[in-house]
Here is the input.
Amino acid sequence: MLLGEQNVTFALPHSDRVYMLQHARIVWEGRDQEPAYGSTFTFTPQNNGTQWVEAEAQWPDGRRVFATANFTANSPNVVWVEDAVPAGGATGSGGGDSWNWTSRPDGTAC
Here is the structure.
């Protein structure tokens, strides 16, 4: 079970020297992910439930190998109740984003 972001690698048995991955172009795909190239892939689930990730390696001479995996992700959802940030919680932002906790004239949160 995956609880958050996970780096994924593609590996072949050590005894198989015919297929050296450093000479291959590797394409990664996964549920709710943009396709990517590279020797590793960071999978970040966008939804809970069944997930999949696939990798395809292609060598300059046209040979290919393919791998796939299915797994379950359970990224907990945080629900705020009682119109306030939970005890011990903190508001925050990053990447230039910002927000304000606002209230209506009667004091309830918006």
Summary: The radius of gyration is 21 Å. The mean pLDDT is 76.
